[in-house]
From TrEMBL:
Keywords from the UniProt entry: Dioxygenase, Iron, Metal-binding, Oxidoreductase
Organism: Halomonas halmophila
Name by which UniProt lists this protein: Gamma-butyrobetaine hydroxylase
Domain Gamma-butyrobetaine hydroxylase-like N-terminal: 11-89
Cofactor: Fe(2+); L-ascorbate
Family: Belongs to the gamma-BBH/TMLD family.
Coiled coil: none
MF GO annotations: 2-oxoglutarate-dependent dioxygenase activity; metal ion binding
A Pfam family assignment: GBBH-like_N
Gene3D superfamilies the record matches: 3.30.2020.30, Clavaminate synthase-like
Length: 379
């Protein structure tokens, strides 16, 4: 970026106006002061604020502002002076037009799943970053070359973050067993769903590792929940709106555990962008809302269900031994076809890794491999 712009202060000094490329942005003096990118305001190592922002005077003003090369030099009425990178100010005030920034939407026409090699990702930071970037962009990645041992995925998990332990333990079996504690442990087909919406926090990423898969059936189905949500918004805006407003509950219980959560099937962030999808017919419990509201909700849920079970949006694949799916549980809906054990065995292992450690690893690797300063890494 070149410094082809101009600055001016409001008459009371409480606003900075920045004009670049014909677009004017306005910044509050208080915002600029508490976000000042200098070592007196932010800890250089962690980026944590060293001042108490709530104690800054509400009548704080800017005494001067000057465009100096690629930086904006500011002096405040409390005597503090700082330099802002011009690019940082432009980025901070630029609205993101897309509902899914940084993501690639897909449907049944996806020609090739994003792939990664287990050994490469475990040994090489660039390969690990490529795997994590694909996971972020597409919502899933197919990893090959995983050791066909019960905890074969563990060494790659250790490269990213701690394994999330639940009431089911750490890495758990996914195979047909007697007295199953969850429907995944049966031979029935599973409708598209997200995992564990009754937990707080909901597990961020699902790691599904195939040890053997010689049973008849049991193919995995994958649906991009963001694509489904935006397709619903385009075709039935009222249904989309309903599923962002109504927040059903979700319940799981057994002899030793009771877990409850709630949230809309389509969740937006504070900017109106897609944040996550939930769909879990097995555990959903919608409240006894008014009859009119329930009528709208049931119709909207049905419309969404028809999309996520449609051939239009569904990708099919069958895991081979030594392959593993890593799936974004805030975005991806996954299921499977029913399977029969006669003459074959289907044994998968599953674990969870949370979003914070996964996102942190991706952003830190991106910064380290690009040589960016830590504060410039972004999602």
């Amino acid at each position: 970026m070149t410094a082809s712009g101009k600055l001016w202060l409001s008459s009371d000094g409480q606003r900075l106006n920045l004009d670049t490329q014909g677009h004017t942005r306005e910044f509050a003096a208080l915002w600029l002061r508490e976000r000042a990118p200098d070592s007196a305001t932010l800890d250089p190592r962690t980026g944590q604020r060293l001042i108490e922002a709530a104690e800054l005077p509400l009548d704080l003003t800017l005494e001067s502002a000057e465009l100096a090369g690629e930086h904006v030099a500011l002096r405040f009425s409390d005597g503090h002076a700082t330099d802002f990178p011009l690019e940082a100010l432009v980025e901070a005030s630029t609205e993101i037009a897309t509902s899914v920034p940084g993501r690639t939407l897909w449907d049944a026409s996806l020609a090739e799943p994003p792939r990664a090699d287990f050994a490469a990702a475990r040994q090489d930071d660039a390969a690990l970053l490529d795997m994590l970037e694909n996971l972020h962009r597409f919502g899933f990645v197919l990893v090959s070359g995983v050791p066909t041992e019960e905890d074969g995925m563990q060494t790659l998990i250790d490269r990213i973050g701690p394994l999330r332990r639940t009431n089911w333990g750490g890495i758990a079996d996914v195979k047909s067993v007697a007295n199953a504690y969850d429907l995944t442990m049966t031979q029935r087909g599973l409708e598209p769903h997200t995992d564990n919406p009754y937990r707080d926090p909901i597990p961020g990423y699902i790691w599904l590792h195939c040890l053997t898969n010689a049973a008849d059936g049991g193919d995995n189905t994958l649906v991009d929940g963001y694509q489904a949500a935006l397709t619903l918004k385009a075709r039935d805006p009222e249904a989309f709106d309903c599923l962002t407003r109504v927040a059903p509950g979700f319940l799981y219980h057994d002899d030793t555990t009771r877990l409850e959560g709630e949230g809309p099937l389509i969740e937006l962030d504070s900017h109106g962008r897609l944040a996550r999808v939930r769909f879990n017919n097995r555990t959903e419990r919608v409240d006894a809302l008014s009859a009119d509201e329930l009528e709208r909700y049931y119709a909207a849920r049905r419309a969404f269900y028809h999309l996520i079970t449609s051939d239009e949006l569904t990708v099919h694949l069958k895991l081979d031994p030594g392959q593993m799916l890593i799936m974004d549980n805030y975005r991806l809906l996954h299921g499977r076809r029913a399977y029969q054990l006669a003459g074959g065995v289907r044994h998968l292992r599953q674990g969870y890794v949370d979003r914070d450690s996964t996102t942190s690893r991706r952003l830190v690797l991106r910064r380290q491999l690009s040589g960016q300063p830590s504060q410039e890494a972004s999602a």
